[in-house]
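quick one before i forget lol
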Amino acid sequence: MEVPAFRIRQWGCGKGAGERGLYLASLSVKVLAKSADLDRWTKTNRDGYQRPPLESRLKERGKTSIVRYLLDEAGIFPTSVLLNVRRKLDFKEEVNIAEKISFGKLIIPDNEKLWIVDGQHRLESLKRVAGIRSEFNDYPVPVTIMDFDDRFLEMLMFYIVNSRQKKIPTEIAYRHLQRMVEKVEVEERFEWVKNVLLGPEEVRKGVAALIVDFIASDESSPFYDRIRYTGEEKEPQHLTDDLVLETYISKLLKEKTFGMMEPERVASLLIDYWSAIRDLYPSCFRQGIVEQYTLLKHTGIASFTYLFPTLYSYCMMEGDVSKEKMRELLGYLKEEVDEISDPDFRRPIDEKWWSRAHGPFISRATGEKAFNTIAENFATKLSIVLKKKEGR
């Protein structure tokens, strides 16, 4: 396929960056429907970076409907769709316009995919409209084509374009940051990314996603093959979503102790911790009835994650950071403690406490204030019971 195109060369001065060529052209909906594709992030495609299009933007009616915009409104897209071909492309220059700008023929092999970096909703809407009105098969779509053979750099362009224009959905942003941490922190590539895109918070989020992957793939983990990843359908075996764990683990990494640990070590500790919790509250993990409890919703996962530094410090003081020691200490939560003024925490923290039907209101509450209140009262209870036992 030979396409009339302008070639321009752009550059940046970030360390590790360099001059790159871009091709400005127009392709029909028919060609794009055949050749364009999305690199979606899934559990089995962890190098992907897109999520499925939002159906709300593709309906025929609605204020944000692009289909309606095409059929009933102006239907003009003045901005280009951003595509990438993962190989160096041939360009036959015909006219040299300026030092970095020329016009000619861009040669795209017929079997090469055009990976959609930005503009998936526009293209999907055009495809749907072409199914309603066939003349839209010839609709000319302005495109900017890159030929980056580095898939990671393609993902970076997606992240930059979207994060600078609008907020990337949180569930996929953690995965982008994970890839950046792996490439930049581990492989030491693209130093400008580290300097500009990876601040402390972004690194924590990326490492949290990496830790969740360890937790999900370790056969000794209570979450082994039981985490629903972004884009997956809810299945009976799923206990929670990857985003829920990532959100609170990233906050745990603010603690210097855990922020300085290797991700594998943090994952190992959390596997033991949650295994101890599962042993104490088995019904909350049981397939078929897990939804009857809030322990594996935001409330329980946040509260127990916030409690973990306290429990870890007790284990360290006793010189035993094992699952058995964690289970022993967490078991103290099941005791009744008269010294606590709040009756919701004075009572045993048992499975009934986490029950949607029978637990106290705070066990179903959402929001950081409630999560911190639960964790603080759990820590207080542990402290009181430990002091009693030491005094015997």
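fyi The two ends are 84 Å apart (CA to CA).
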